[in-house]
Amino acid sequence: MSQQVILTETVDRVGVIRLNRPDALNALNADLMYAVVEAAEAFQDDPNVMAIVLTGSEKAFAAGADIKEMSEKSYIDMQQSDWFSHWNRLSDIRLPIIAAVNGYALGGGCELAMIADMIIAGPKTKFGQPEINLGVIPGMGGSQRLTRAIGKAKAMDLVLTGRMIGGEEAERAGLVARLVADDEVFDTAMEVGKTIAAKSRPVVMIAKEAVDAAFETTLEQGLLFERRTFHALFALEDQKEGMDAFANKREAQFKDR
Ligand code: CO8
């Protein structure tokens, strides 16, 4: 029987997706892409899941798209299959996705981590966009999400030279939300997921949409979206509960958790 390319479980309302191609350093082939996307959609459809933690192994989050699967493809193969466009389904997931990243996060691996909403990493994590060494460029967001995350100067450095950066440099550059000891990366991501799990599910989804809107709109449009959405939250019982709990010095018990 062939090995499962991902492993999934639900722990305390946090859905975990673990990439599981250890012999290929979790290289992202088509099977793995479909499996990740379908698992994330299944978690989203489960009202008991509040957040998703996406992780790999100690040695590799993912060492990139599967070079062996791609190498012999023609332009027409890539263009007609719209290779890897299915990852867009992952960026459509409305639950927060936390990437717990150890080891190599290269090429498509770095790009997959950037599709997530936040990255937790350790000092030994290695991020990079080494596609230039293969005679190609990033194809899943490395020229776009990376530039938005760390700015043009550093994105140019990584994309043009293919050099890797460690977790500390990535955190300083703004790619990593929390830098923790390497052996605490997964547990920290789970703690973040559990913290989110105590909030209101619709409000969590709307908060994610509001932050994402900053990348898609002008400041004026974004501020209006935020303000109108803020107004709309006053239609929720969870807003009444949250504010009443504050006033009465108790912990909020959100209905739509
Ligand atoms: N694809 C396929 N196999 C891989 C990959 C990969 N990306 N990375 C590692 N492997 C395999 C190796 O071939 C090796 O297999 P085998 O044992 O059968 O020879 C096994 O994993 C272990 O790897 P190494 O022996 O190389 O391990 P090392 O510890 O010596 O080196 C490295 C680790 C530095 C991570 C090295 O494996 C490496 O450089 N890997 C390739 C990194 C890379 O170039 N990534 C970018 C790939 S291209 C990409 O991601 C484009 C994404 C956008 C596509 C969008 C299309 C529209």
TrEMBL record:
Task: Indicate yes or no for the key word Protease.
Answer: no
Q: Organism's domain of life?
A: Bacteria
Q: Which InterPro entries match?
A: ClpP/crotonase-like_dom_sf (IPR029045), Enoyl-CoA_hyd/isom_CS (IPR018376), Enoyl-CoA_hydra/iso (IPR001753), Enoyl-CoA_hydra_C (IPR014748)
- Reaction catalysed by this enzyme: a 4-saturated-(3S)-3-hydroxyacyl-CoA = a (3E)-enoyl-CoA + H2O; a (3S)-3-hydroxyacyl-CoA = a (2E)-enoyl-CoA + H2O
Q: Which UniProt keywords apply?
A: Lyase
Q: Which family does it belong to?
A: Belongs to the enoyl-CoA hydratase/isomerase family.
Please state what the protein is called.
Answer: Enoyl-CoA hydratase
User: Native species of this protein?
Assistant: Yaniella flava
> Lineage from the top down?
Bacteria, Bacillati, Actinomycetota, Actinomycetes, Micrococcales
